[in-house]
Each structure stands twice: as C-alpha cells, then as structure tokens.
Amino acid sequence: MERVLMKGNEALAEGAIRAGCRAFFGYPITPSSELAEYMARTMPKIGGVFVQAESEFAAINMVYGGAATGNRVMTASSGPGISLKQEGISFLCEGELPCLIVNLSRGGPGLGGIQPSQADYFQATRGGGHGDYHTLVLAPSAVQEMMDLAMEGYDLADRYRIPVLIMAEGTLGQMMEPIIMRDPVTEFYDKPWATIGCKDRKPNIVNTLHLSPEVLEERNIHLDKKYQEIKAREQRAETFMVEDADLVVVAFGIIARIVKRSVMDARKQGKKVGLIRPITLWPFPEQIVARAAETARRFLSIEISMGQMVEDVRLAVNGKVPVEFYGRIGFTPNPEELTRQILAIAEREGF
Amino acid sequence: MKVVAKRPESLTEAQFHYCPGCTHGIIHRLLAECLDELNLREKAIGICPVGCSVLAYDYFNFDTLEAAHGRAPAIATGIKRLLPDRCVITYQGDGDLASIGMGEIIHAAHRAENITTIFVNNAIYGMTGGQMAPTSLLGMITTTSPYGRSIQQGGYPTRMAELLSQSEGSAFICRTAVNNPANVTKTKKAIKKAIQMQMRGLGFTMVEVLSTCPTNWGMTPAESMKWVGEHMIPYYPLGEFKVKEEA
C-alpha cells in the first residue's frame, strides 16, 4: 500500500478523483483554494474538466449541469461562498442530482475570518437554503479521512441521489499528514435519469417546479422518505471510552482529535470521561448519543462556534441528563484548555 | 397524399399554456423545426428558464433541465464540457438573461462555451405580472414603472446582442423578430445557423428574438405585433452582429 505525505485539501481532491470525479467547478476562496488548484493541475491529465467559474452561483449551477450528465462532479468553497451556493444546493436536492460539495469552513458571520470554524453547522445540517431538504453531511477529522470520506461521499451521493456535503475546518485542508492511498473505484451506478440526449428512449427531464399542490406534496413526501431512510441507515460516529464514562464529550472534526487527548489526560487523573465524534453531522448520530445517555451522567458539547451542534446533542439526550456547552470562535482550543474544562465539570459534579 | 406541414418531432403534443398572441409558441416551434431538420433531437439537451417559458420542458420533446432564474448558461456549461458532442441550448427571457443572469450569460460568451442561447426579448417580466425588465423601453409603463420608465429611475434599456457581440468568445450573435411572416422565416434561419455553428465548435451563439406580451402590454395580439415594428425594432435593430467563420 502506498503511503504518502499529503495536504488535507489535496487528499480530498485526490480521493474525489479516485472515486471517479471527472469535473470540478469552483471559485477561489481561502482556505479552500488548494483544492481547486489541485483539480486545475490534475483534471486535464485525466481527461476531466476544470472550470474556474465567474461566481459561486455559476459554479454550483455548473455542478447541476454536470451532475445531470451522470458524471461524478464536485465543487468546493468556504463559508461566504457556501452561502452563495445555497440556491443551487436547494435545486440539486429537489432535482435529486448527486454531487460532492466541500465546505472548508471558516469563521463568520459576514466575511468573518479565515480561521477554522464550525459555525456553519446549522447551515450544513438544516438544509441551508429554501425549502424542506437535507444534504448528507460528513465531517472528517484527519487527512486520511479527507480522502476516505470524499470517496465514500460519492457512493452515498449516487446511492441516495443526494448532494453530499463534506464539512471540514480550514485546518484540515491546510495540514499535512501521512496517508494511505486508496484504490480507485471501478464500479459505478447506472443513471438512467441522466439528461444526455434521448436516443432510443423518452426524454428525461430534470425539474424542480411543481405547480400542482398534489404533486408538490408528493415530491416532498418522496424526499422525506429518502431522508428518513438515510437517518435510519447512515448515522455514523466514532466512540472512545464511552462505555463507563460519567461525562461524555461530543465533538466533531479537528476538535474531536484535540478532545481525545484531553479525555486520555482526564482518565489519567481517574475521571471517567469519553468521546463521541459524529462523522455524519446530518444525519446526526442520535442513536449513538441516546444509547450513551442511558449510562452517562452528563454531556458536554465542544465546538468552534457559539453552540450549534449542542442543540442536536440535547435532542438526542432528550432530557435524560444535563448537556453543557463549551465553545471558542477564531481560536482552536488546545488540549490543556479543554482538559481544564473537562476536569472542572468532573470536580463540580463529583465524578 | 403529400404531407406539407406537421408537428415537429422535437415538440410534444402538450398544448401550450401561453396567452393568446404570445410568440413563445412560434419560437418553440422554430427551434423544434431546426432540430428536426438538423437531425439533432436525440442529441439535444435544453435548459429552460424561470419566466413564462418555465414549462418549456413539457413542450420540447428532447432531454431538458429546468434552471434557477438566470443560471441556464452555467448549467449548459456543466453539460457541454462533459458532453462536448451534444447540442446544448438555453432558452431564456429578458428578466432571466439580461437581469439576474447577466453574469452567467456574459461569462459563458467570454469562455466561448459552445452552446446556443435563444433569448426571447419582450421588454417585460411576463410571468410575475408585467414588471419592468432591463429591456423595457424608456417611457414604457409597467407595474413597477407605473409613470413610465425614466432614465433617473430605471436607467437605460439593455441591448444584449450588441453587448455580447463584443465578446471574443461569441461566434454568432444575431437579433431577429417574429412580428411578421418574413421575420419569422429569418428567425428560423438564424436559429439554424446558430445551432450549426455550435456543432462546428465555433463558440458561443445567441439569437435574440424580439417578442410580444399582449397581456402585460395591454394590447391586442395584432397591436402588439405592430408595436414591435414601431417601437422595439428602432431601439433594438435587427441583424447579425457577429459572425465568426473559424474557431
């Protein structure tokens, strides 16, 4: 197996290519630009398409057209750019066009900053644009996972005909780690719905307009059924020392790695602390959190935001035990800071 | 018995929903006839706009997509780049193309995307109820320019064919009208030429068609046709603005 040192953005791009991505449409924005640059270098060599779009609107609509041809296509951006793409993402969801969208998230609101952030959690998990819909949201926490989840993301996208959003803090895009290169995907899904010309069949239509109330409701029920199926089947999380934990920390992405260190530090001091790291942000791994709530005495959600995922933790815990929150914005807390927070709760509660 | 006229295969049998006197029906048919005659129906992929022709996917008998307002040229780009041998057509109105989609159309032209745009200009927003369009004429009364379009309030009407003909990426830019039989014939020739140039890979092609909106103009169909000749053509002159012979 090939082991190489790679930057997160490049690992994600390479993973997408190995999953069969043949077109990238993007607009430059920090901290996602390396991903576009990797695609600009690589696509011409493999007979793929790279277009630097004039805007995020155009980029996401190029994805709409590209996905409609049945090819695996993608776009990447960051906070403000992802906001602009929301119109297109709503259309992609109703048009049931599979694709990969990457948010190398940075701080907001407004232009915010270019530091890593998780403050786009609501936008990512609640749909983000107009109408009743969800994208499937994956949150890597290592460079290896940037590649793995890009590949798995395409599989989920095609299986459910849904846009898959990878939400990774800017840090993960910028940092380098050794990773094991995955083998390229060789088997692909049939897409009889693709608009590629109506030779020997009736015309295909990709449409999101339903003027009749009956049809509109039927479409929404159809989408909801799909979302319920995804919720039932695809909840994913990594658990670490949760079984006997009094305090369960919930954290995703880069923060989860830092929390893992703090959990081990707290354990050394005799405090029973564990970690749940959601890998799917939507669907939120509520089954795994609910199971932990049967034995844990308290939860703590740690995020780089003012408190967003904590709402999903509370819904999953469903009032069984208290749920606390600790967050920073602009800064990524270090293990010492998080260990202090964890130990303070353990001491206060007599764990 | 010899068949002298029939429904083009590139049109479905669905009945148009358009208002009496609206020229979308004529333009749909001309596009369909061109695709039939060029034997391109099975290679055609159409992108429909937001506006009165939003339901065009029900009328075109080939693969179609419905776009968000103004975004058709971006969708067309995504398709054509991945399927360069297909015939990709956007069908857009003036609010769609010249207002909210101004960025998408200009950059599609600059990138020399090998697509064909049918731009239906009737100087008004039809579907939303007769609001001022970027192409509404000065003095024109609409629901959002109730005292007549003024330069101070609404600025100048946009001439898209002239604008896009300036782009190095455009291969064929033409303005026609469908206000009389002679102009209908010329429009068909222009659409056919645009599609042929797209298939030769020469670059961006657009036919702007001056059209009518009797309902929102508050005129009869006959008065509307006359108004095109008397008011629109003087501001929006007909003709070929750009014809590139080689890529």
Note the main attributes of this structure.
heterodimer, A: 351 residues, alpha/beta, seven-stranded mixed β-sheet, five-stranded mixed β-sheet, 12 helices, 15 strands, globular, B: 247 residues, two-stranded antiparallel ribbon, 9 strands, 38% helix
Largest sheet of chain B: 7 strands, mixed
Task: List low-confidence stretches of chain A.
Answer: none
User: What count of helical segments of chain A does DSSP give?
Assistant: 12
* Tally of strands of chain B: 9
Q: Supply Rg of chain A.
A: 21 Å
**Mean pLDDT score of chain B, rounded?**
97
Which class best fits the helix and strand makeup of chain B? alpha/beta
- Pair of chains with the largest interface and how many residues each contributes: A-B, 39 and 35 residues
User: Span between N and C termini of chain B?
Assistant: 45 Å
Describe this structure as you would to a colleague.
The complex is a heterodimer of chains A (351) and B (247). In chain A, 42% of the residues lie in helices and 21% in strands. By secondary structure, chain A is of the alpha/beta class. In chain A, the strands form three sheets. Chain A has a seven-stranded mixed beta sheet with strand order 3-2-4-5-7-6-13, with helices on both faces. Chain A has a five-stranded mixed beta sheet with strand order 10-12-11-14-15, sandwiched between helices. Chain A has a two-stranded antiparallel sheet with strand order 1-8. The model of chain A has no long low-confidence stretch (mean pLDDT 97). Chain A has helices spanning 8-18, 33-42, 56-68, 79-95, 121-125, 143-160, 170-174, 213-233, 253-268, 286-293, 309-317, 335-349, and strands at residues 3-7, 21-26, 49-52, 72-77, 99-105, 136-138, 163-169, 176-180, 205-206, 237-240, 247-250, 273-278, 280-282, 298-303, 323-327. Chain B has 247 residues and is of the alpha/beta class. Chain B has helices spanning 24-37, 56-59, 72-82, 94-100, 102-110, 151-154, 160-165, 181-199, 214-217, 221-235; strands spanning 44-48, 63-66, 87-93, 116-121, 124-125, 131-132, 170-177, 204-210, 239-243. In chain B, the strands form two sheets. Chain B has a seven-stranded mixed beta sheet with strand order 2-1-3-4-8-7-9, sandwiched between helices. A two-stranded antiparallel ribbon of chain B has the order 5-6. The radius of gyration of chain B is 17 Å and the shape is globular. The N and C termini of chain B lie far apart (45 Å).
